[in-house]
Amino acid sequence: AMYARRLGARLAVGTEIDPLTIPCIAENFERNGFGESDCVLGFLDAFKDGAKFDVILCNMIRSELWPLRDDIEELLVKGGELVISGQLETEKEYVLRWFEEIGLTVLQERVSGEWWSVLARS
Fold first, then answer.
1. What is the pLDDT of residues 57-78, one digit of tens each?
2. Three-state DSSP class for 74?
3. 60 phi, psi to nearest 5 deg
């Protein structure tokens, strides 16, 4: 969220499921000159009906990401971009199959050691 705001995003909202990280997030926002953080404690269903995002970034392992697929699909605008990181390269076929099923086009993939990330557009 901080990086997106630094690049000029009008709104960048982060979500976090671990309440112990909230003070760290708040401190990072303050230290980086953003004042209060725009992070929400909770899962993606914390967003009100009708909320849509141009870009969604998910940095979590597949077992945590997988239950959120329906919410991600609902929150991403048509033509929006989805970044998935924190994936083991050995599991990338699951994500690529999901993208194919819902009509996302892969724009870029990156590998770093055993980790894989992907950028796709709806």
1. 999 999 999 999 999 999 999 9
2. helix
3. -160, 155
pTM: 0.86
Look up residue 73 and give its two tokens: 């699909």
Given the DSSP bridges, would you call strands 53-59 and 39-41 parallel, antiparallel or unpaired?
unpaired
**Which of these, 82, 92, 18, 42, lies nearest to 62 by C-alpha position?**
92
**Burial grade of 116 (CB within 10 A; 0-12, 13-18, 19 or more):** buried
Positive/negative CA dihedral, 47, 76, 61, 67: positive
CATH class of domain segment(s) 49-122? alpha beta
> What does the pLDDT look like over 4-45, one tens digit per residue?
888 988 888 888 888 999 899 999 999 999 888 888 888 888
